[in-house]
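U., I forgot to send this yesterday:
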Amino acid sequence: MLFHDLREVHGYAYSIQSRFAANKLERRFPWNMAAIHRNIVPAESQITAVLSKLQRESIEPDRLLAQGLC
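Result:
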């Protein structure tokens, strides 16, 4: 989803990778991005917006199917 939003929709990043790791004490969502300098702040803002939206709303089933996630 981040790749689609940041690369394909907004053109902020050349690439972006993320993963989720959790244990009993903490949850981590590290991400890496390749972007030109002028796009870093807007890209980080978009990442925050996407993650905030995921905290508030369910992901649409069609989007999960399109990404092969269900």
